[in-house]
Specification:
homotrimer, mainly alpha, globular
Chain lengths: 291, 291, 291
């Protein structure tokens, strides 16, 4: 890679998230909260509870990684600038007269810009999580992956758990199975950055950050424009499932035995002709998600 | 303020909670547990589980603040004196023949005395929480407020969560919204003590402790005598909601827009003529509580 | 006790758990997971989720004790050897063609051997937990008991909680009461080892480990061979309940009062003629368990 390219990626990897990208992240998170049914009513009746939920949406990933590393979950409250920023955004979005913000946000270009910038912050969070976990456990690359993942995609877990406690969300056994598209991409990124951090990838960090961010943003934007869920990881998953779990299918002799495996719900039957079905299931999941 | 007054408040603020006020706190908490339906039967069938629940009722606030600060939640088990005291009170209350204790407790004066002394411990807990959090984060006044609040009123959160896990309590979306009267007063106190601790209030700590305790006890006792819920904070809440969320109502042009805000349950419609209704809702809440 | 006996118990107490006993523990845990309805289907659809659940089954006790002591719950991920071992066992058990492993495991002798070895690891876990807790709180013998118990029997708590979050398990009020047979034995062991550690028992640690392990294994094996639940602790519980809660029954005068105690479900009435019933209830519980 040439010097100008390196310069570009270096300057990119040194971009500060603080004012603008964080704002985009907060806006997208709070708008996602507001679009939940009844959220606006809650904000009017009990602003404190609504504010608390909004903070969970904005800082959930950090809170989860704090819990997983046994750090004070309240630490995010010590950064008053970010709290103030997120709170004012929450206030504007929920209490702006005539819902001006919601109307402005309803235009696709605005959404695209905000979502793209939010994806950029995701890269920074993953890198931060991996580095932070490495400061705890030198060689604990599993922990590094987990923390990077938690920082990047953990917000949804925290908010889902909060909804569970509030009773807004009744879990179903297979709900848990569905790993969202974002979670998968974040996991992939966390793995890559971990291996880069342990020098198992022959690529410099700033290059990886640049490329991974491009990857994130393009996928997000394409998914938002073409409402159809493009599934960049499906082939990868397919290959993996073939490699790991597919070869059992070459032994037809014990189809019956696998049939007799204990199973309550339908999908188990698909276990006997698995990998293709697995891919199908995956597609179905995405279809469900985007409906 | 004169010297005798200062002496009074100083001696008051130096009162030790240990033998008597703690006992009152344990008695009130365990009696609250026993008055839950089926609690007595549980105590007979599985004393260990009942004892554990009683400990949660007695030390819930401390446990919650420990979790929030990533300290061992089991630390409360190291203070053997308090555990022994709470356990013996639990034993006496649940297994005293002929329910003598319950009968004695059923007299209003006894209840008033116990409840009043319990409120005194609340002040001490809030102050302890604020000071403790300050030892972690020098300027983290948000954390100080949160920890003071958790110590003072967190017991109910812990026990509610335990009931959720046990399945005794099925959460409803709006259950979560109702902030109990006590929680609000405790939050107010936590805010005041935090600002006092950061020298933003021109009042010495012992005076504030004295006045706030008087405030707590009078409100509690009045609420217990006149079964009617007097709502000292309603006007404050009303003013606040007018200041923060009321001014949108001056723009009648976008009533329709606010109507069209996504909302599942009725209350959202009340959002369009909010502040007065908010106060009404609050009153309704209290009415529900005291029925 | 003579020298050969001491030598025997010493060498026994110095046995390393690592390769074989841990394998047995992982096999038993993962098989228990696989025998849950639908687990196999989950493994095919979403291997990652199934792997995560398997890890919770294998390392749940350690995770719980980490949470209770405010240590990073992810620490178990740093021991790569154990993770690799457990993961490969999970992979073999779930994806072995023709379910060879399940078939091999279906023979009683194999199950007996595996279960027996798993019980051995339980002793080691309890001792480890007690010692670890003692390094935190010198005289906190309550904490030592709790941590030893959590390490030894906490896996079931963690997995139950996971099922609750996943919605596979709907809690009922009395579910929580039932303390499993294993939990009771583990609690007894944790108490004994704690008192041994604080020198309140006149027996050396290696002897206690040896005897307690024999006790565990024999009970487990007998319970598996004679499907009938033998309840070695029932008499002990009976005596205890008589001592602690039985003497109230000598005062017949206040039967009526105890009847009037608030209670939603039937069992409360049994409170008035408690201890015998308590034993019955216990037996009923075990009967339920083994059906």
């Amino acid at each position: 890679m040439g010097t100008p390219w390196d310069e570009l990626t270096l300057t990119f990897s040194r971009t500060s998230m603080f004012p603008f990208f964080d704002i985009a992240h907060y806006v997208v998170s709070v708008m996602a909260l507001k679009q939940q049914p009844g959220a606006a009513a809650v904000a009017w009746q009990n602003p404190l509870s609504s504010w608390f939920t909004a903070m969970l949406h904005c800082f959930g990933g950090g809170i989860l990684s704090c819990i997983l590393l046994a750090e004070p979950p309240l630490r995010f409250l010590t950064n008053h600038t970010h709290i103030l920023l997120a709170s004012s955004i929450w206030y504007i979005i929920f209490f702006c007269p005539c819902d001006l913000v919601s109307q402005g946000y309803s235009y696709l270009p605005v959404q695209l810009l905000a979502a793209g910038m939010k994806e950029v912050t995701r890269t920074w969070k993953i890198v931060g999580g991996v580095t932070h976990a490495n400061s705890y456990y030198k060689n604990g690359w599993l922990v590094m992956i987990a923390i990077g993942w938690a920082r990047g995609a953990g917000g949804s877990i925290i908010t889902t758990f909060e909804q569970l406690v509030k009773g807004d969300w009744k879990p179903k056994g297979d709900e848990w199975l569905k790993m969202s598209h974002t979670a998968k991409i974040t996991l992939l990124g966390s793995v890559m950055f971990t291996f880069q951090h342990t020098d198992h990838l022959g690529i410099s960090k700033h290059n990886l950050m640049f490329l991974y961010t491009i990857f994130l943003v393009t996928i997000k934007v394409t998914m938002m424009i073409t409402k159809s869920p493009l599934v960049p990881l499906a082939p990868l998953e397919d290959i993996l499932s073939r490699m790991l779990f597919g070869w059992q299918q070459q032994i037809p002799s014990c189809e019956k035995k696998t049939e007799t495996r204990p199973a309550s719900n339908g999908p188990c039957s698909s276990a006997s002709e698995a990998p293709v079905d697995a891919a199908d299931d995956a597609k179905k999941k995405y279809a469900k998600k985007t409906e």
